[in-house]
Amino acid sequence: MGAKVIGIGTSLPEKVLTNDDLAAMMDTSDEWIRERTGIRERRIGLPTSTMAIESGRAAMEMAGLGPDDIDLFILATTTPDQRVPGTAAVTHAELGLGCGAFDLNAACAGFTYGFVTANAMIDAPSGPQRVLLIGADALSPLTDWSDRGTAILFADGGGAVVLERTDHPTLLGWDLGADGNHRRLLMGDHDSFITMEGRDVFKVAVRAVSESVLTALDRAGVSPEEVDVLLPHQANIRIIEAICKRSGIDFAKSHNVIDHTGNNCAATIPLSMAKAHADGALEPGAIVVMTGFGAGMTWASTVVRW
Ligand code: COA
């Protein structure tokens, strides 16, 4: 069994925050942010649920499906609207779904964790035929807009896919990883802003993600040269370059949106996927690698035959 992506949808807030806007608020500059992160501007201003609903609806429309056609719904988010209930609940109601639904919190690796989970569920005996998987996060309310170490990176966004069962394998290899000893490098307590040790996160991410990609490729029996499309978590363009260098995947194969989206956590990989789809890169049979990392720290990689 396998699961193919039959619908992709995205949602970004209308409000644009440029690097110059940030430079007016704190000691930084457009030049510094572009050089050190690859970000020009980002979108902020919508709650997680709104972006989940908009992107989920768009993915179902592209798939030509109604709410009764979805058998399971997973929402990857680390920024739920409320503590209780999970944000899957309001999204489920607004989309008119009747299936099982739950939040999955693996921070910025959440979409990739969810992708593996969705595939495993579809593969299970009497598993669902179709799964709606959404990654949505609103980091802006948790961002200290006077902290130049985090404010330059974080943003809001949503992205969704519909996965449908097929009779041939599609998920060729995967790797899920975590190291809770690094939990203090990137954290936000109840009612406080996110704090981050940027340099340490950078180092752990590059090492863990490149090893994770190579592990997933090895399990899939695919070489780095055979990768057609790389959909990496959009945290910093220099991290993506370093991961490509270490794993042997050509940077030109990566589809990046970070220059205009910033880091919107679980949404970045489906946003990158939507760009790859619009570019015509997601041809049937293409080898597609997704890789994400985030607070925890968590990381996850998949190798998919499209
Ligand atoms: N504007 C201008 N100068 C800045 C700055 C900013 N926004 N942030 C830091 N600086 C300065 C520092 O004060 C330091 O100055 P000094 O050399 O005089 O002490 C210098 O720039 C270098 O700082 P450093 O922290 O080493 O920068 P960096 O190259 O590591 O970039 C990050 C900082 C946050 C962009 C980078 O560490 C990063 O992206 N880390 C990973 C974060 C991440 O991926 N988080 C999400 C995980 S899901």
**Beta-strand content estimate:** 25-35%
Bound compounds, each kind once, are: coenzyme A
Compute the average pLDDT: 98
**Major sheet description:** 5 strands, mixed
Strand order of the largest sheet: 1-7-6-4-5
The ordered H/E elements are: EEHHEHEHEHEEEEEHEHHHEE
The value of Rg in angstroms is 18 Å
Q: Residue share in helices?
A: 25-40%
The total beta strand count reads 13
Which shape, going by the Cα principal axes? globular
Measure the end-to-end span: 14 Å
Q: Which ranges are low-confidence, i.e. pLDDT below 50, for 5 or more consecutive residues?
A: none
Question: How many H/I helical runs?
Answer: 9
**What is the structural class?**
alpha/beta
Structure description:
By secondary structure, the protein is an alpha/beta fold. Helix content is 33%, strand content 25%. The longest helix has 23 residues, at 198-220. Bound molecules: coenzyme A. Coenzyme A is lined by residues 28, 32, 36-37, 108, 148-149, 152-153, 186, 196, 198-199, 201-202, 205, 235-236, 239, 263, 293-294.
